[in-house]
Inverse folding.
């Protein structure tokens, strides 16, 4: 059953849906009849095509999760489409750099984009959701939160923080009718993983039981399942989609 037919919730806020995983999730939701709002720092060609295809049900505004007032973004969505039913806390940033030489401003940036901003966005949405007694929050984490990898310390710390947020919020917001889960992607073909060297790509593929990187559609399918009423009894969980890499 599709997300849209499973529940009567219809308004999704997907942060960072200008490309990659976020855009794939947004496109699936749009095809299922949802209204989808997003923001990112810049536009992309893929984004422009989606805006053109869904002029009435898709909205993009320029925004930065690390610096903007998230309450204003959420109010903007409400004005355009109505209250937010589901949040996909997807916007994220990765810089690979060894910890010992990483400048402090880079650490601050990674923690702000991948953790502090998403926490503030979750709060802004949860306040609206709790007033209506329902809602779903899906935090997009990473396998870096589960396993140690070199060169991603601040990013990994932020993503592990998001998983902690998921569990704490599931406890606190469950009684208010709000489900909160973490979606934990392995390696998917997006702009973010284009930084992976050919040598590392071969290594990742070799270590992945299914022998390849994932497609954005494969992660979007799991996301829309977790947002749907099919997953009505799933909360506080980290759902890993990685072709078996971390098993
Ligand atoms: N691809 C993978 O294999 C993989 C693996 C594990 C986890 N993830 C996670 O999955 C999520 C999506 O990743 P992706 O691969 O789709 O990455 P991507 O292709 O780089 O897309 C990231 C999205 O986030 C937006 N974004 C980045 N910084 C932002 C900021 N400060 N404020 C607002 N938006 C911002 C980007 O737009 P702008 O740059 O224009 O702002 C873009 O829309 C991220 O949370 C990432 O950590 C991805």
């Amino acid at each position: 059953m599709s997300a849209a037919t499973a529940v009567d919730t219809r308004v999704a806020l997907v942060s960072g849906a200008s490309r990659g995983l976020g855009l794939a999730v947004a496109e699936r939701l749009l095809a299922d009849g949802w209204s989808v709002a997003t923001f990112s720092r810049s536009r992309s060609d893929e984004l422009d095509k989606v805006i053109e295809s869904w002029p009435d049900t898709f909205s993009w505004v320029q925004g930065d999760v690390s610096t903007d007032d998230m309450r204003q973004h959420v109010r903007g969505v409400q004005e355009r489409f109505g209250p937010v039913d589901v949040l996909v806390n997807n916007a994220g940033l990765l810089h690979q750099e060894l910890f010992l030489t990483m400048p402090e401003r880079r650490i601050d940036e990674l923690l702000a984009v991948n953790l502090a901003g998403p926490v503030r966005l979750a709060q802004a949405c949860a306040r609206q959701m709790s007033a209506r007694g329902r809602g779903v929050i899906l935090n997009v984490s990473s396998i870096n939160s589960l396993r140690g990898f070199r060169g991603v310390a601040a990013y990994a710390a932020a993503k592990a923080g998001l998983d902690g947020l998921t569990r704490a919020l599931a406890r606190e917001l469950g009684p208010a009718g709000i489900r909160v889960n973490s979606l934990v992607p392995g390696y998917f073909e997006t702009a973010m993983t284009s930084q992976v060297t050919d040598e590392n790509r071969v290594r990742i593929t070799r270590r992945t039981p299914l022998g390849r990187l994932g497609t954005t559609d494969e992660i979007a399918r799991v996301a829309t399942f977790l947002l749907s009423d099919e997953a009505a009894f799933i909360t506080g969980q980290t759902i890993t989609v990685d072709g078996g890499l971390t098993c």
